[in-house]
What does this fold into?
Amino acid sequence: MIKIDIPAPNVTITERQQSANDNEPKIKPIHGFIDFHQIPRDKGGIFMFYNIHDELLFVGKARKLRQRIKKHFEDTVSPIKHHRDEVYKIEVCVVDDPMEREIYETYIINTQHSKYNIDKVFFK
It folds into this structure.
């Protein structure tokens, strides 16, 4: 069996409310998330959505991480469109090489049995 080391997340954000006494400007939440600014805008990589029980819901890859992740919460064709409210935590790993992104995505989907991925699934 091939052993692939999954990279450690570069960024992890969770649902949170903005405190009234925060010195940061008021941020409009997107499905409970207000920290999208922490996700790199022009970097490629993989991302994982988890629920509050740390169950892997979805794995994806992107050339531009922030844009793609936000799109999952906005568009009507996302595989998680009916499950957006389940997402509690987002982990992001910056991976520059497109081939490596593809390998990591497929590997994570199949070894960690993501709940809502429908493509690249070999474990069902």
